[in-house]
Write a structure and sequence with these properties.
The chain is α+β, with helices and mostly antiparallel strands. Helix 3 (about 80-90) packs across helix 4 and helix 3 crosses helix 5 (about 125-145). The protein is about 60% helix and about 15% strand. The chain contains six helices and four strands, in the order αβαααββαβα. It has a four-stranded antiparallel sheet with strand order 2-3-1-4.
Length: about 200
């Protein structure tokens, strides 16, 4: 009986070892693949402050509410062809309006007049250069098109030291789990076929 129990234990442990080994192989493959095959993407962020002054003199509550309500319009304008064409022309970029627009993301903290512009690029210095130019052109365009008195760039773009993607560790963990799931599925199917 002890010998039979020992054999069962050894078989179970061998299956567990195989499952873990498959998971490790998948994880290592994903980690190395992410390092060697995927280009790093860096993000650079700059911020604009927009205030729509409806009256002369001091800023009123109406001014603040109006600026907040128009923030969505400003977000669309930042990624518009008007802005992207000027950025491409000024910087001499070898890209299209559509591709540049995909590199740009715009967000705004809740109930604020702040526009956060983020540019993604394979070169961290190029990301900063583009982000600063997008902020500059966007500020001018908002003033001209929306009849805003002034838009302030209160935070210049940063140079990111670490890439935002790929996340090699995250990819490795996901691949490790998927590898184990696949190995478990194969073991279960084999056992099912044996007992048919």
């Amino acid at each position: 009986k002890s010998s039979a129990a020992s054999d069962v234990y050894k078989r179970q442990m061998s299956k567990i070892a195989i499952i873990l080994l498959v998971g490790v192989i998948f994880g290592l493959a994903a980690f190395i693949g992410s390092k060697l095959l995927l280009k790093p993407v860096y993000q650079s962020q700059t911020s604009l402050y927009v205030l729509n002054k409806q009256s002369q003199g001091t800023t009123t509550l109406s001014d603040l509410q109006s600026s907040t309500q128009l923030t969505q319009d400003y977000m669309i304008l930042v990624k518009s062809r008007t802005v992207t064409e000027k950025v491409i022309s000024d910087l001499g970029l070898n890209t299209t309006n559509e591709k540049l627009a995909k590199q740009i993301s715009v967000s705004t903290p809740s109930d604020s007049r702040v526009l956060e512009i983020t540019v993604s690029n394979n070169d961290q210095y190029e990301a900063k250069r583009i982000a600063d130019k997008v902020a500059e052109i966007s500020a001018d365009s908002i003033c001209d098109i929306m009849q805003i008195e002034k838009v302030n760039v209160f935070e210049e773009a940063n140079i990111s030291e670490k890439p935002s993607s790929p996340n090699c560790l995250k990819n490795a963990i996901i691949a490790f789990v998927l590898g184990m799931v696949l190995a478990i599925a194969i073991v279960v199917i084999r056992l099912s076929l044996i007992h048919i």
